[in-house]
């Protein structure tokens, strides 16, 4: 398990140390953090808004939407395979509950409430007393159109816990399938003469079906109980990660396919930029359906390209990786509350948009680093932010051991 993967090898060792996936996890969360900073400045609805909000950044942000969370669920699926193999089904389920339930509860009742408070304050629906607000927030209700209590950006952790518990009883069967003849047959698709094209085009097929059959019926809610299209997308990409985790054929296929995937992704970006420059003309329902199909392939192509690039260039260790691997989950938990709170006050400062952006970015990043430095030093806070007990924090970590978010 300690052998590093040689990305140039003809037969990658998917059971080895995966520093490349650690780096991708860090990058994926960083993209998410900057996406939420960007939400302050665009015209789409969000918790608090800049008075200078405009459509300028929307194309760039929209181009991350098809893949950024899918990448996180894929990596979480990889980690789920490593961790469940290490612990066994029962211990894996217990570990997920013990690790993630405190994070969810603390998040819902401590970390997230300021987001709702500042949202309602900016809407003019709430007075300045946070204690009066919290007394109402903690009681299940609808507060000025906002369901409380709520998990907001922590929906990802909730879904990951639920998926893990659903899968736990089936872990032995899933492992046998992945490592048996069926898994080998699928692997041969990725290593054949048309393997790169197969890997690029076959994996998106279920997601294309979801887009046709489920997305129009079940809009995304992040409310768990009525989010069926979102569940289909997220659970499926999680399972793709699970089956890919220890498949040497898959990682060989990634090494071969990523240049093609990167070329496709680049072409899609150029197409989208051209259409945006034309004001998104209406070419009819058929053209819209084709663009939606191309978008699904684009999402997977970005993931493939990132996996290949990371395998080639990021499979290396160092102090930055070790620090950020531990820090990134607390960053994720903290960042949106910092962004919303800072954004509320920045919106009242009367600054130009670039000054607002610089200030909000600096405050969010500095707040995440400061928060993590406090959290890592206070034993009682560590489990509330998904960190292991202080006595085990310095042990070298595999991707499978980065348990804060199961990824």
From TrEMBL:
- Stretches assigned to the Acyltransferase domain: 19-370
- Molecular function terms from GO: acyltransferase activity, transferring groups other than amino-acyl groups
Quote the protein name from its UniProt record.
Acyltransferase 3 domain-containing protein
| Taxonomy, superkingdom | Bacteria
PANTHER family, per database record: BLR4337 PROTEIN, GLUCANS BIOSYNTHESIS PROTEIN C
Entries under InterPro entries matching the protein? Acyl_transf_3_dom (IPR002656), Glucan_succinyl_AcylTrfase (IPR050623)
User: Which parts of the chain span the membrane according to its record?
Assistant: 26-46, 66-84, 96-118, 153-174, 194-213, 233-254, 261-280, 286-307, 328-347, 353-372
Ordered alphabetically, the record's keywords are:
Membrane, Transmembrane, Transmembrane helix
């Amino acid at each position: 398990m300690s052998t590093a993967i040689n990305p140039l090898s003809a037969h990658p060792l998917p059971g080895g140390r995966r520093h490349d996936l650690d780096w991708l996890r860090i990058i994926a969360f960083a993209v998410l953090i900057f996406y939420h900073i960007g939400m302050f400045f665009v015209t789409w609805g969000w918790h608090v808004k800049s008075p200078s909000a405009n459509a300028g950044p929307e194309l760039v942000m929209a181009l991350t939407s098809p893949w950024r969370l899918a990448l996180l669920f894929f990596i979480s699926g990889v980690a789920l395979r490593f961790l469940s193999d290490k612990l066994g089904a029962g211990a894996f389920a217990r570990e997920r509950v013990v690790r993630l339930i405190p994070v969810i509860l603390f998040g819902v009742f401590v970390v997230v409430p300021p987001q709702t408070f500042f949202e309602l304050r900016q809407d003019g629906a709430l007075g300045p007393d946070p204690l009066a607000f919290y007394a109402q927030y903690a009681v299940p209700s609808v507060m000025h159109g906002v369901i409380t209590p709520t998990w907001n950006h922590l929906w990802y952790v909730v879904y990951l816990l639920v998926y893990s518990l659903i899968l736990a009883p089936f872990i032995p069967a899933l492992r046998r399938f992945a490592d048996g003849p069926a898994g080998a047959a699928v692997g041969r698709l990725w290593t054949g003469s048309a393997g790169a094209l197969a890997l690029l085009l076959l994996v998106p097929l279920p997601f294309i079906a979801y887009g046709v059959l489920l997305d129009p019926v079940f809009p995304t809610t992040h409310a768990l109980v009525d989010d069926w299209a979102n569940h289909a997308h997220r659970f499926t990409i999680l399972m793709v990660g699970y089956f890919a985790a220890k498949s040497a054929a898959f990682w060989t296929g990634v090494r071969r396919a990523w240049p093609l995937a990167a070329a496709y992704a680049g072409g899609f970006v150029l197409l989208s930029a051209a259409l945006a420059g034309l004001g998104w003309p209406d070419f009819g329902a058929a053209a819209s359906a084709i663009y939606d199909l191309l978008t699904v392939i684009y999402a997977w192509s970005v993931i493939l390209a990132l996996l290949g690039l990371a395998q080639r260039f990021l499979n290396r260790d160092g102090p930055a990786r070790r620090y950020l691997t531990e820090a990134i989950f607390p960053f994720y938990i903290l960042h949106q509350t910092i962004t919303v709170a800072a954004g509320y006050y920045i919106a009242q400062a009367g600054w130009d948009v670039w000054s607002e952006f610089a200030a909000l970015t600096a405050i969010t990043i500095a707040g995440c680093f400061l928060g993590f430095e406090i959290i890592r030093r206070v034993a009682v806070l560590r489990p509330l932010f998904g960190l292991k007990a202080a006595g085990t924090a310095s042990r070298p970590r595999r991707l499978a051991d980065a348990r804060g978010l199961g990824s």
